[in-house]
Amino acid sequence: MKAGHSKRSVARQLGMTLHTILRFSRAAAPEELFTGQWQSRATKLDAYKPYLDLRWQEGCTSAWKLWEEIREQGYPDGYGNVRNYVSRTLRGKPQPVGPPPPSARAVTRWLLTHPDALVESHRIQLKAVLANCPELDVLAKHVRAFAHMVTDLQGDQLPEWIESARAATGLPSLSRFAHHLERDLDAVVAGLSQPWNSGVVEGHVNRIKRLKRQMFGRAGFELLRKRVLLAK
Q1: CB neighbours (10 Å) of residue 142?
Q2: Is the dihedral of CA 108, 109, 115, 118 positive or negative?
Q3: Cα torsion 51, 57, 58, 63: sign
């Protein structure tokens, strides 16, 4: 009885092995190898797959970036599931032909650069970015207005700029920056209005700190005093 049962088990196992070998040999695509009950099982990622597909078509191919974006939307699981979905599903989908969108660092650099100093290609890209993001367009106007006050010493315009910045919707960081300026408004207005600054003093302070670091643990105050007075 045991011998017969053992033979049936071996035959059943052999049959399952042959079936698996045939399925692998007949597969026309890698996706056909991944079959089983787990494929049709609902996952927490399902609700976010349409967004991931859309962002993939927009040119975002970083699985980590995609995971960060849906995590901000409430996705509770880790990065591994998004990585697997990107590698198994999205990698085979075509993307629109064209240059990749500029990075956040590049856009920040363009915003902080005087418009006349931007090359033509960067100016065109920045214009396209601002046209597609109203909040960023508003931020760019405030940044340029503040830079105008700094370069032209027009500190009298600061209170009006602060009111406009605090009224801007969708820009909490700009509102917080304006709020911090109000903590010492008179000093900031003076700094944006007067031609004098503490740059020379700060330079001497940095020089003294450098001398102190060079002599740390090896000399006393008298030698430090001589070096500060004699150093150029």
Answers
A1: 17
A2: negative
A3: positive
- Specify the residue for token string 């027009």: 154
Alpha-carbon span 191 to 193, nearest angstrom: 6
C-alpha distance from residue 145 to each of 97, 139, 175, 203, 205 (Å): 37, 10, 15, 28, 32
Percent helix, strand, coil in the chain (nearest 5)? Answer: 75, 0, 25
pLDDT value of position 37: 45
Instruction: Please answer whether residues 102 and 60 qualify as being in contact, where contact means their C-beta atoms are separated by less than 8 angstroms.
Output: no
Q: Could you give the percent of the chain with pLDDT greater than 70?
A: 78
Whether the CA torsion 91, 95, 100, 101 is positive or negative: it is: negative
Share of the chain above pLDDT 90, in %: 12
The CB density around residue 154, as the number of other CB atoms within 10 Å, is: 14
pLDDT of residue 223: 83
Could you give the CA distance from residue 92 to residue 86 in angstroms, rounded to a whole number? 9
| pLDDT score of 138 more than 60 | yes
Residue whose tokens read 């070998």: 21
Structure tokens at 162: 């602060």
d(CA 66, CA 71): 8
Nearest alpha-carbon partner for 90 in 57, 45, 65: 57
**Is the pLDDT confidence value at 178 over 60?**
yes
Q: Give the three-state DSSP class for 45.
A: coil
> If pLDDT is split at 50, 70 and 90, which confidence band does 1 have?
very low
**Other C-beta atoms lying within 10 Å of the C-beta of residue 27:** 13
